[in-house]
Amino acid sequence: MTSPALPKDIPFGLGDQFRRNFSLYLSGGFLLAAQQLLMAKRDFLVKAAVDAADARIAEAAAEAAIWMLVVSVSAAVARVLSRVTVFTAGRNVEYELRAVLLSKLHKLGPSFFRRMPTGDIMSRATNDLTQVRLLLGFGIMNIISSLFALASALYVMIRMSGKLTLAALVTLPILVLTTRSFSTKLFTRTRENQEAIGKMSDRVLASLAGVRVVRSFALEDVEGAAFDKVNRDYLDKSLAFARLRGSMFPMMGAISAVGTLVVFWYGGFLVIHGQMTKGDFVSFWMALARLMWPLLALGFVTSIVQRGRASYSRIKAIFDAEPDVVSGPLPAPKEVQGAIAVQSLTFRHGERKVVDDVSFELPAGKSLAIVGRTGSGKSTIATLLARLMPTPAGTVFLDGADICELPVETVRASIGYAQQDAFLFSTTVARNIGYALDDPDSPEGMERIRAAAKEAFVLDEILSLPDGFDTVVGERGVQLSGGQRQRVALARALIREPAVLILDDPLSAVDAKTEAAILGAIERQAEKRSVILITHRVAAARRCDAVVVLDEGRVIERGTHEELCAAGGLYAAFAEEQRIEADLDAFDVSGVQSVKGEAVTAA
User: Fold this and answer.
1) Which of 7, 190, 280, 355 could bridge to 310 as Cys pair (CB 3.0-4.6 Å)?
2) Which are the contacts of 295, defined by CB distance < 8 A and separation ≥ 6?
3) Which H, E and C letters describe 24-48, residue by residue?
4) Is 149 within 8 Å of 290 (Cβ atoms)?
5) Would you tell me how many other CB atoms lie within 10 Å of the CB of residue 361?
């Protein structure tokens, strides 16, 4: 059976998911009912066969045996079909919840990911979802099957002997009370166990992500000790759960064994005194065996239900989280020109004011450089413009419309953002650059990918890789240098052809020759769209139409490159510092070359 097509908004409640797959559960329930009816028919056939054999009526015994075979095979077919049907429903729920979970995670902001580590999220998306799937697949199947088995088995048992049925059920209240006493404890221990898995997963993820740092500081033993701590905690929680679950099954088995002894003692008494035939007793015993499995499985099913509930409560914590950024009520504009206006923008990280009353304007098709020291708030402004963090309402406008009033998708689709920390996916170079394309592998897609790579001055280096554009860059682009990663990310931003292009320090990891080529590309981009260049390099800022200078989150200067150099402020100081650094670098290079030349002459 194929999974259903996913609508835009899938409900994530367990009840909602049950209703979405109700037809499968209904079909599975019908098949389970048919199986138990057939099993009840088999029990009556057993009575007929045993009584016929006891009366030495061979033909009647043989006929009953043949019908027993037919009924048993039919019941087996119904059982297999019921399992396939209900398990498919469980798999559908897992598939849909995983899709909703990923969609939800994409909408959540930095505040959520600061609260919940990545490893814990991965644990919830894998281990916890598996437990929910077991609940809504295997768990529901056993609940439905147990109910029908109880009904059909009790019907047969009462028909055979009402007295023996009462005797057989004498231990049932004790069994129910025992199950209830374990239920709450199982829920608590399961939740603790799953949380321990999440902590361990996060520890492993962090250790592997920083494996180079661990090796460079020779702290493998320290990392091993840290992992051993969370691993030991997981072991303790797992053993506690295992001890609880392990004590439950023997206790329930012992209670059931007492019931079995009562049935043999009293049933034998009834047969000896002629109140039951041998066929009645054998048929009763087979029905009781069908009844005992649901009772014995009650603890097992309870464990599945409690584990599923505990896991779902952990997943629900993600579903219930509120995103930092929400879409506005205005419809998406037909066309975005790219005019940006920032008015009295203030933003805090906790108690610390990172951006303080910043205002500037960028007409469509113009370029603006935002210059400042490290930590002055430049990158924060970029993320607020791209709505990657909650932008204060009434402070940032795109083509005259408050971006908080526009759909988030429209704002982000209109702004191409090349971040300073260039993140690459563990796939090919081509797929990283063509990430925003519908079909990056098509001839048209590859043509656009090559053009973007050329514009970002990384085409020749890509072609020199072992497999060219098909080279897999590894986890976070580890196979590429820092400069190559930065330019691949720049190409990925360029290929979208956005109305506004934000470049966050795209020159931090490149040499002078590459810097000149990228600056030329930025100038060409500024002829087609609005460009915001975040940089600390005056050589890059001078190519923009206007410059804004930040210091401690505030705008302290604004104007053209020439105007700011003449003003003698912070920007002019940056220009002078970088001119002196360039002169010193040039002197060092010429000095080394001169020394080498003298050495060659002397030789």
Assistant:
1) 190
2) 172, 175, 252, 256
3) HHHHHHHHHHHHHHHHHHHHHHHHH
4) yes
5) 15
Write the DSSP assignment of 495-508 as a string of letters.
Answer: TT--SEEEEESTTT
pLDDT value of residue 81 = 93
CA atoms lying within 13 Å on the CB side of residue 201: 19
Would you say residue 259 has pLDDT above 80?
no
DSSP 59-116: HHHHHHHHHHHHHHHHHHHHHHHHHHHHHHHHHHHHHHHHHHHHHHHHH--HHHHHHS
pLDDT tens for 18-65 read 788 888 989 999 999 999 899 888 888 888 888 888 777 888 888 888
| Multiple choice CATH, 14-319, 2.60.40.420, 3.40.50.300, 3.40.50.720, 1.20.1560.10 | 1.20.1560.10
DSSP 531: E
pLDDT per residue as tens digits for the range 516-535: 777 777 777 777 788 898 88
Residues 230 and 200 sit within 8 Å (Cβ to Cβ)? yes
Q: Phi first, then psi: give them for residue 161, nearest 5 degrees.
A: -165, 115
Let me know: does 488 contact 422? Beta carbons within 8 Å.
yes
Give the domain 340-589 fold.
Answer: Rossmann fold (3.40.50)
The Cα–Cα gap between 128 and 122 comes to 9
DSSP for residue 374 = T
Cα angle value 278/281/287 (rounded, 5°): 140
Identity of residue 243: R
List pLDDT tens digits, range 194-246: 778 777 877 777 776 676 677 766 777 877 888 788 888 888 888 887 887 77
Instruction: Show Cβ contacts of residue 527 under 8 Å, excluding neighbours closer than 6 positions.
Output: 365
What is the arithmetic mean of pLDDT over 173-197?
A: 75
| Residue 305 and residue 179 in contact, taking contact as beta carbons nearer than 8 Å | no
CA 594 to chain centre: 59
What predicted TM-score, i.e. pTM, was given to this entire model?
0.66
Name the pLDDT band for 1 (thresholds 50, 70, 90): very low
Residue pair 392/346 in contact by the 8 Å Cβ criterion: yes
Determine the Cα–Cα distance for residues 261 and 273; give it in Å rounded to an integer: 18
Q: How many CB atoms lie within 10 A of CB 51?
A: 19
> Domains of the chain: which residue ranges?
14-319, 340-589
